[in-house]
Write a structure and sequence with these properties.
GO terms for molecular function: N-acyltransferase activity; UDP-3-O-[(3R)-3-hydroxyacyl]-glucosamine N-acyltransferase activity. The chain is of the alpha/beta class. Helices cover 17% and strands 27% of the residues.
Length: 341
């Protein structure tokens, strides 16, 4: 079990210690579930009532909240970021693999750095390069001419096709497929003619890719995921997309081909972005939104309707179909009134 004192955590976070600096912390938990030895946090005002009754050994708080709290605390500007840092320090997640398993298939031309671990039944193709400290989980396949940067972790049953490059300190979760063919076809008199997808995938440093997410290779040129991007589970990123630094894409979202998503963008869950669009830096796409035109100005964009009773939804659907007719009637009415004036 990992442990650290409150004083040590304060130094790590640049936080002020309130109470017993020698207190030993062994884990993290919510205010409601925390027990002795665990540290919690308050980042949302709706949970402030739990602060009075929490059994946490210490709590991460803002100065304002700490003024009304008599227990042990770390006082800092952003308790949620502080919680994330503490959780990393006390993380008990096991490695994706340990050592080189006897059943792993590693091509003689592959180059493995120091401390690389490869799990059972993993396959490492020709001319693959794995940086120092890379972890390759059981059943994972890395295709020929691919490169994986130092300290990147590939969990079980990840598939990297040929000519895929991942940077340093990335995490790829189980079932993710990177470098599969993009959806590229020409139509000749009703028959689909496949266009070979000859580009690759280039992924920067500190990128996290969720379970069962698919990132297609480029048709010509590369699909690019830049530094610091986080991608949730079951996301589809099509060929030749470019995802800007530190953007976040939530689960079940789909981005069609040749989209340029800017830096620091947020794409809410179950959203869809049509192909060949540019999305400006800092755009926030709400969950369930369909983006069908370019987004040129930073801001929050939404298109989904809120949940309502089915009968009301059905009536409103009918009225939505009548909007154009209503618009034309209003336009004609305005024209008539203007003529009468």
């Amino acid at each position: 079990m990992k442990s650290v004192t409150l004083k040590e955590l304060g130094l790590l976070l640049g936080a002020d210690v309130q109470g017993d600096a020698s207190l030993v912390i062994t884990g993290v938990a919510t205010l409601e579930a925390a027990v002795d030895g665990q540290i919690s946090f308050l980042a949302n005002s709706k949970y402030r009532s739990q602060l009075e009754h929490t059994r946490a050994a210490a709590v991460l708080l803002t100065a304002k909240d700490a003024a009304d709290y008599a227990g042990n605390a770390l006082v800092l500007a952003d308790p949620y970021v502080g919680f994330a840092r503490v959780a990393q320090l006390l993380d008990t997640t096991p490695n994706a693999a340990e050592g080189i398993h006897a059943s792993a298939q590693i091509h003689p031309s592959a180059m493995l750095g120091e401390g690389v671990a490869v799990g059972a039944n993993a396959v490492i193709g020709a001319r693959v390069i794995l940086g120092d400290g890379v972890q390759v989980g059981p059943g994972t396949v890395i295709g020929q001419d691919s490169i994986v940067g130092s300290n990147t972790r590939l969990w079980a049953n990840v598939t990297l096709y040929h000519d895929v490059q991942l940077g340093r300190d990335c995490i790829v979760h189980s079932g993710a497929v990177i470098g599969s063919d993009g959806f590229g076809y020409a139509n000749e008199r009703g028959q689909w003619v496949k266009i070979p997808q000859t580009g690759g995938v280039r992924i920067g440093d500190r990128v996290e890719i969720g379970a069962s997410t698919t990132i297609d290779r480029g048709a010509l040129g590369h699909t690019e995921i830049h530094h610091g991007v986080i991608i949730d589970n079951q996301v589809q990123i099509a060929h030749n997309d470019i995802i800007g630094e530190n953007s976040a894409i939530a689960g079940n979202s789909t981005i069609a081909g040749s989209v340029r998503l800017g830096k620091y963008c947020i794409v809410g869950g179950n959203s869809a972005i049509a192909g060949h669009l540019n999305i400006v830096d800092g755009a926030h796409i709400s969950g369930g939104t369909n983006v069908t035109s370019e987004v040129r100005v930073p801001g929050v964009y939404s298109s989904a309707t809120v949940a309502m009773e089915n009968k009301l939804w059905r009536r409103n659907t009918v009225r939505f179909r009548q909007l154009d007719e209503l618009f034309q009637r209003v336009k004609q009415l305005e024209k008539t009134l203007k003529t009468e004036d």
